[in-house]
Amino acid sequence: MTQTDQPLDFLWFIPSSGDGSYLGSDDLARPADPGYFREIAVAVDRLGYSGVLIPVGAACEESFVLAADLAARTERLKFLVAIRPGTATPAYYARLAATLDRVSNGRLLLNIVVGGSAQELAGDGIFLPHDERYDHASEFFQVFNELIETGHSTLDGKYIKAIDAKLGLPPVQQPRPPIYFGGSSDAAIDFAGGLVDKYLTWGEPPAQVAEKIAHARKAAAARGRQASFGIRLHFIVRETDDEAWEAADRLISKLSDEAIASAQEVLTKNSDSVGQARMVALHNGRRDKLEVSPNLWAGIGLVRSGAGTALVGSPETVAARLREYQALGIDTVIASGYPHLEEAYRVSELLFPALGLPGPRGQLRSSFGAHQVFGGGGHGGNVKLTSAS
């Protein structure tokens, strides 16, 4: 079986800072609302997604607390939850992680977010230069992993000091929940090579993704390790390519030049993230050249920090583009779309069949076997057909 024959692991996204239908506009916007996040989680659990990414940041709901709330309302869904080294001790994060894994019955995934905004990190009390943050993170996860795998750790390091630290209750997953991480700098990829189980990239053109994967593979191999690979992408999938591109245009139809300029100034001045710089370089704040690779659209990155590209097209077109990434070694997709509840349905109903993914779980029979079509939801039910159509 080749890489592209393997089914993708498909996760969705919880927009814990808010959601909407138009970028750069309050029209049809949805504020951060725990009730809405529950709707999304319950829907994607049923629709066949394997998990959800919960982001971290000053503008977001706290990821561990939100994950615990959503875990109690879902059955199979896994939760990719961020750890930001330095905002709490390794021992405290180990207790959080072990407890969340226990109360969710082994549904925790861990996402390392070292941070790319010096301004936001300063608010969290972290004042290390870019590359040095990864040295700090290496010591942090030495203690964290020892605690969550063995229950005890001691380290007298340059950044982390933990003397006879203990964890009383182990996680469900052994030796620990899987660790995910994304970073584009040399320091980040070197850090990833010694630690992470799944290296993540934002949605760059395939040639650029191939270079990053090769770099990450080399870094892991130098330490006698192997890593798997995932990609973070938005999706605009419609029944035809033309409809999908119309939806992409609509998403930024209320986005002003002033809003773009303001967002780009923040993204370039307040961030020392190499990954963010690579996202900005795909469009450079311009509306006129947003298709940066076949069906890869950079319009979201005009205002959104982090992942700023979407695959746009019909199910067959988008599936073909995803297979190109699979051929490079990608086996996991962390997806999203605006608004997230409706687009979770579209991606499951339209794209999953084209990818050979099973789709909704636990669907009940809708008839005793006679071929029926949707009849509008009236009291008479569906329409029975006398012959196949």
UniProtKB/TrEMBL annotation:
<comment type="similarity">
    <text>Belongs to the SsuD family.</text>
</comment>
<feature type="domain" description="Luciferase-like">
    <location>
        <begin position="10"/>
        <end position="331"/>
    </location>
</feature>
<dbReference type="InterPro" id="IPR011251">
    <property type="entry name" value="Luciferase-like_dom"/>
</dbReference>
<dbReference type="Pfam" id="PF00296">
    <property type="entry name" value="Bac_luciferase"/>
</dbReference>
<dbReference type="GO" id="GO:0004497">
    <property type="term" value="F:monooxygenase activity"/>
</dbReference>
<keyword id="KW-0285">Flavoprotein</keyword>
<comment type="function">
    <text>Catalyzes the desulfonation of aliphatic sulfonates.</text>
</comment>
<keyword id="KW-0503">Monooxygenase</keyword>
<keyword id="KW-0288">FMN</keyword>
<keyword id="KW-0560">Oxidoreductase</keyword>
<dbReference type="InterPro" id="IPR019911">
    <property type="entry name" value="Alkanesulphonate_mOase_FMN-dep"/>
</dbReference>
<protein>
    <recommendedName>
        <fullName>Alkanesulfonate monooxygenase</fullName>
        <ecNumber>1.14.14.5</ecNumber>
    </recommendedName>
</protein>
<dbReference type="InterPro" id="IPR050172">
    <property type="entry name" value="SsuD_RutA_monooxygenase"/>
</dbReference>
<dbReference type="InterPro" id="IPR036661">
    <property type="entry name" value="Luciferase-like_sf"/>
</dbReference>
